[in-house]
Protein: Aldehyde dehydrogenase
Amino acid sequence: MDNIQSILAAQREYFLKGHTRKLEDRKKNLVRLRKSIKRNEQAIIDALNKDLNKSEFEAYTTEIGILLEEISFAGKHLKKWAAPEKVKTAVTHIGTRGRIVPEPYGTALIIAPWNYPFQLALSPLVGAISAGNTAVLKPSEFAPAVSGLLKRMIEETFPKEYIAVIEGGIETNQQLLAEKFDTIFFTGSVPVGKIVMEAASKHLTPVTLELGGKSPCIVHNDADLKLSARRIAFGKFTNAGQTCIAPDYLMVHEDIKEEFMTLLKSEIEQMFGKDPLQNEKYSRMISEKHFDRLTEFIKEGTILYGGGSKKETLTIAPTILGDVSTDSPVMQEEIFGPVFPVLQYRELEEAISFIQARPKPLALYLFTSSKETEEQVVNRVSFGGGCINDTLMHIATPHLPFGGVGESGMGNYHGKFSFDAFSHYKSVLNQTTRFDFSFRYPNAKNSLKIV
Ligand code: NAD
Structure:
């Protein structure tokens, strides 16, 4: 049972026979997944180190820990999420009872990227299992150690007719996308997101698209500058900037620019050392192609800090760039690496209209102590999600939906929102048979008939 069609046929049959539906089984399967992660913790850390030179600390905090939390949260709340919800009866519907019944879509396709290759493959799977789907998981070919490990772990834990991992590159993805799934959950770039949506449209398959883009980071003149510098250095350079919600570029108020830049450099040194290229715990670029792309970006402005790189290890030092043209590729494309262009502004309005004139970002970060500034930005700028006075942290709570808007994606997940992403909410109306209103029908004589 190894080709795509036979796996899909087996999953469909497994689903239609109802094997994924019982709440107790879903919970048991979440526990199985959790146990498998715990059992393979060292292997996961090793694979992440092999693919990205991720440190053990980062592997735990940004991949393993976050996932274990997600599984526990789902296990704890699943009963409530899956319960049908009774709704009120409208006066026009006297005698009826209405309820909303969540039902699994069926067979889900989950396509994952390479930057958090473990977490971003399994986190959607938590939603798929919770909601009662079967799933085919396609990890990224750019993270082969994690991809192989995911395959082994899933095969040891679940039968293929329930959850299967299919490894491969673009061609495998194309074959998968040609098939009819009941839902597709894609995490990756904007251009590939468009390919996925086009393929899904052929079967009218619903999609969740977790995409990327350029996420701005604004530092206003009333911000706590030292704290801002620390939190921005953390958000930008974790995983060497290869984070979908990393601050992409900085917009800093001109009055505090010099002071802030000094603090930012000092915080980068504090976190990654004076020579990050010698720091064994600093992540590398995923491939030579990605390394070359990033080093080209560095040539597009004045290097205000960093700028070094080492091709043998595919590492690029945290780099701050000044004097960048807004038309240059570094300000047009998602950077997705440790290069940080800096723009300055005088009036908040300039920063707001700059962002409004571009595709809606996946994340936005604002550093300010003013409620009014916060309201201005939150109410007037559209973005997927973000933080005031922090970076990245909105992704790590199961209480907030995570996702993009416009070109940065559609749909969202995490916590209950993951359950929703893999569920259809079915409306069911129960009509009374004790009486009937004749005026509902053409040419009626009596208004009420007791039956
Ligand atoms: P990518 O779009 O290149 O690849 C993602 C997946 O799509 C991979 O599994 C890959 O095999 C497949 N793929 C690649 N080209 C394809 C094609 N032509 N046809 C069909 N399938 C194809 O993305 P990536 O480089 O792996 O990841 C980086 C991107 O993902 C960035 O844009 C980043 O912002 C985004 N991202 C978003 C989130 C999020 O949660 N919103 C999280 C991580 C990464």
Remarks:
- Residues 111-115, 120, 138, 140-141, 169-170, 173-174, 187-189, 192, 195, 210-212, 244, 334, 336, 362, 404, 409 surround nicotinamide-adenine-dinucleotide (CB under 6 Å).
